[in-house]
Amino acid sequence: MTSPCPAACLSNGIELEALRAEIASGMASGIPKPAEDVFARLESKYRATDKSKHR
How far is CA 32 from CA 8, 36, 39, in A? Predict the structure, then answer.
């Protein structure tokens, strides 16, 4: 099976290295939060924003 994106499409590895740097930065940024908590907070925030627009 071949990769959907051959190595040639990664601009000589520059994009891959940038992605690796972003992942490392995220991992070093602190204690991870469960995705469920993050999405619940965002859903609540945007529901409240939407309700305030309809008043």
Answer: 33, 12, 14
Say which residues have a Cβ less than 8 Å from residue 7's Cβ, sequence separation at least 6: 13
Q: Tell me the per-residue pLDDT of 34-50, one tens digit each, with 9 for 90 and over.
A: 999 999 999 999 999 88
Following DSSP, what letter does each residue of the chain receive, concatenated? ---SS-GGGGTTTHHHHHHHHHHHHHHHSSS---HHHHHHHHHHHHHHHHHHHT-
List pLDDT tens digits, range 12-32: 678 999 999 999 999 999 999
